[in-house]
Structures are given as C-alpha cells and as structure tokens.
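Example for tutorial group B:
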C-alpha cells in the first residue's frame, strides 16, 4: 500500500485533494495528513473520511523538524504532497515574517526530512519515492500584455510578501533537485475555487456576504484578472504529475478561465438569484447594489494567466470544468453547507479538533 504524506491537508486545496485521492484509489492507498490547524485548517472539511482505516491525521507544524522527522521514521512514506502554506496576500502584507517562516523554513524542513528518509548510501533515492511541491502562479508577477501567458520558463517576479515567500520555497525545491538530484516536482497553479474554501477568499466571501445582505468589497476598479481553476481539476492534475510527470520538472496548472474580479462577483450574484428559491427572504437582498469599491490592495497585480501547454503535452491533463459549471457547483455546495461556513465565520470550527481528537 503506497503511503502519501499530505501537508496542509485540512486546508481548502489539501482537503479536496484527499477527497479526490480516496475517491479514485479507495483502500489501495494510505494518507497521513499533517496540519498545524491554523485559522485556515479545518478538520470539518474531512469529517466524512476521518474514520477510515487508511487515513491518519497528525497535528504538527512543518517547521518542527523533530516532529516531521519522527513521522518519516515511524512510517514508510512513498510520496509527499506539500500544500501547507500561508496563502492570503492581505495577511502577508501585515505579517510577512509569518509567511517567511511557514512557506520558506517549513518547506526546507520538509525537504530535509524526506531527503534523509529516502536517500540511499550511494546518493540515489528509494525507487518511486517522490516529493511534489504545490506553488502558485503569483510567483511570476503580473502580465501587462493581454496576449501574454505564464509559462514554466517565465521569469519569477513576485510583488507581495506572500508571492515572494512562495518563490523562495520554489527555489529551494529547485536547488534540492539540482544539487542532490532529489526526486521532486513543482506545480504552479492559478486561483482555485470550489468547496471548503475559507471565507476570507473572494468567492466564498462574496457568497456569504450576499446571503447576509452585507457589502461585497471590490478592490480598486474591480478589473484585476485571475485565471480560475476548479479545485477538483487541480487535485487531478497533482495526481497525474506524480504518476506521469518527469522528475525535476515544473508544471503549470491553469484553468483557462480568465475573469475580472467584478465579473466573478456579478456571476455569483446571478447564480445565487437562480438557485435561491423564491420563498427564501434572502433572495430579494442579493443584488449588485451590494457591490462596494474599496481602496486597492498594495502591490495588487493586474493580471495572471497560465498557459498549461506543458502539462497537457507531457502528462495529458487538461481542465475539465468550465467556469460557468464550476461556479454553479460551488455556489450550490455553499448553500447546502451553510452550517460549515457559519462555523468558519464564528470560529467554532476550531473546536472540532478538541471534540474529535482529545480522547484519541
């Protein structure tokens, strides 16, 4: 049974990846989920799989070398999928050192632990052992020409403390691949959306605020463009890179769904109006009148857009979910899981760990 160590598996993308892997492989794999459970780590995301015999949750900090080394020593880890990171740009502007610690030092700690566990006396590595580092398109900076796209060869040009910390972590993975021939890959993805996303991000924030008749804040003129990737498509891409990708390579994973932020918000409003029943009193409050323009974010990049040509050609992956379909699935999920989002907003989700694991 192949064993996967997933860092940050209680977060948005990590938990969706774990769901995807169990849906695809069932009982033929084992997953160990390591998460510090910061504000964005939510074990309620994994309630439906927490009692599986082939799933283990360990609360640990990826910067804690002793704890991470112990996990490798006590388990025969075949694959590492490294999601764990601080990821919110606004938070990075206020607290950059937190991002340096988690995203840079945490990644190096993970690399050192995997290297020590997998390296053989002759300097090679155990067969079929791989490390996948999940990164972002934000490391490439901003595109000014509407005809340009991010490629794996695009020069790094990060503009926020968040993207700078992710760029640095990418460079450390690259350095380990070049220096030690460490068996790894890097994936750089565009903006993800879908179930279980923490409600400080644009799409769940807009859904939640609209349902409560609250203002829908839009930075600047709202015309900043992002490429949107449905999270399950991303999970599939990560799995395919580990199975079919060439070692030491970087793969960009993009959704081919470029939208302005204002377009995203208006689409969510329209979708809510379609999905809410006529007798729901909240429906009359969901309108574009809630849109409120606010002072632009410092260093706000204008446009991101990924060209996923390489992953299509070498791995056979392509985004399957068009934005119109994906946003409808996403809004529907949040409408069906309002208790989940209420727990996030109130902070009650943080009690779940104590309730479920204090006696384990």
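The residue assignment follows.
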């Amino acid at each position: 049974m192949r064993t996967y160590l997933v860092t940050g598996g209680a977060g948005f993308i990590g938990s969706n990846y774990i769901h995807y892997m169990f849906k695809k492989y069932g009982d033929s794999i084992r997953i160990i989920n390591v998460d510090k459970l910061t504000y964005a780590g939510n074990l309620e995301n994994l309630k439906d799989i927490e009692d599986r015999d082939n799933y283990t949750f360990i609360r640990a900090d990826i910067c804690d070398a002793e704890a991470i080394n112990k996990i490798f020593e006590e388990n025969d880890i075949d694959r590492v999928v490294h999601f764990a990171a601080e990821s919110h740009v606004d938070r990075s502007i206020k607290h950059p050192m937190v991002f340096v610690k988690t995203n840079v030092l945490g990644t190096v700690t993970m690399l050192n632990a995997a290297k020590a566990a997998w390296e053989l006396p002759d300097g090679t590595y155990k067969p079929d052992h791989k490390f996948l580092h999940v990164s972002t398109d934000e490391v490439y900076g901003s595109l000014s020409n509407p005809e340009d796209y991010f490629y794996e060869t695009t020069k790094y040009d990060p503009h926020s403390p968040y993207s700078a910390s992710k760029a640095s972590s990418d460079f450390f993975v690259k350095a380990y691949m070049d220096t030690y021939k460490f068996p790894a890959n890097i994936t750089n993805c565009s903006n993800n959306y879908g179930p279980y996303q923490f409600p400080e991000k644009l799409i769940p924030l807009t859904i939640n605020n609209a349902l409560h008749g609250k203002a829908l804040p839009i930075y600047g003129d709202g015309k900043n463009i992002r490429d949107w990737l449905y999270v399950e498509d991303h999970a599939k891409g990560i799995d395919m890179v580990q199975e079919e990708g060439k070692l030491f390579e970087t793969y960009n994973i993009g959704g081919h769904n470029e939208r302005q932020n204002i377009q995203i918000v208006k689409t969510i409003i329209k979708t809510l109006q379609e999905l809410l029943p006529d007798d729901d009193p909240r429906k009359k409050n969901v309108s574009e009148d809630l849109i409120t323009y606010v002072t632009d974010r410092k260093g706000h990049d204008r446009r991101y857009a990924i060209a996923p040509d390489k992953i299509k050609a070498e791995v056979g992956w392509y985004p399957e979910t068009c934005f119109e379909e994906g946003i409808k699935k996403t809004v529907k999920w949040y409408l069906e899981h309002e208790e989940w989002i209420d727990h996030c907003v109130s902070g009650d989700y943080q009690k779940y760990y104590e309730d479920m694991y204090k006696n384990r």
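The two ends are 24 Å apart (CA to CA). Compare this with the pattern of hydrophobic and polar residues in the output above.
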